[in-house]
Design brief:
There is one protein chain. The protein has 326 residues and is of the alpha/beta class. The chain has 2 domains: 171 residues, HUPs (Rossmann fold), CATH 3.40.50.620; 150 residues, Rossmann fold (3-Layer(aba) Sandwich). Helices cover 38% and strands 19% of the residues. The protein is built from 12 helices and 11 strands. The chain has an 11-stranded mixed sheet with strand order 8-7-6-9-10-5-4-1-2-3-11, with helices on both faces. The protein is globular.
Length: 326
Amino acid sequence: MVKLKRILCPIDLSPDSAKALRYAAMLARAYRAKLLLCHCVETHAPTNGAGPHDDENVGAIFAALIAEHTTAADRAALDWEGAVVASDGHPASAIARAAAERGIDLIVMRSRRRPRAAALLGSTAEAVCRIAPCPVLVTHPQEREWIDQADGEIRLRRILVAYDFSDDAELALRYGLSLAQEYGAEIHLLHVLQKPSTDGPEIAWLPASAEDIYHHAARRLQKAMPEEAYQWCKVVHTLRWGKPYREVLAYAAEQEIDLICMGAKGAGFGMSALFGSNVDRVLRQAPCPVLVARPLKPAVESTQTSVNPLDKADIRLNVARLSATG
């Protein structure tokens, strides 16, 4: 079972970004984890005095957001604190650094779904998914939500794991299984096959060859699921032909999936950044939240060894812990 002890939720203080807070708070409650709210500011922005980003103002905003997105009972049990972190114009790097320094187990953040014309430039959420030292759960507008807005309860019914037999896909499966066990959800294991090329020898694209590929993948997919999983949840194995991101998105829509889990560096992730990877495309178009599984990296020992000397002042200046009662 996956252990979540510390959850980070980056917030830019806009109403939209704060909507990820419901997921972060409810997961923190469910796993009895510490919740850290993080706000990034430019290094030249005011961080003390009466500026809009000073500790007292940001702390008050954090407290108001907690009150807005949780019930009174949840707030009483929630262990949280806030941090203002310096950014040199690259918030994704600041978020990843904050996660590493604090030993975060999961980052929960909001994606604004940039317009198609700007999608080639990527987004902060996509950048964090590439460099984070831990898994990242990305939520977005117009998604199928699985946290009830009225009572805050988690109603996670169907989890899709995009499985390509890579180590990262195995990690995604572990997180999917843990959540499925915790909430009694179905788990759908999907592997996407590429059609045999017709450019090679004729034998390579004979129907018998495609059939062999299919059955071989089916056997591997069956073995990927631990035997004990069948005892406590419904398991669905699916094989499809096509492009991974298209089939993942289509399956998620057809089966009313609540959460997609996928590895950060699986097959296809290294495709040209100009057109985006399978993970990027799923993040931009998924009908539900997406959990991008990444191996946990140990926290840095100190700012003396983790950052360039020019960055030390930024960290010393901007790290501010704000208690829940402060």
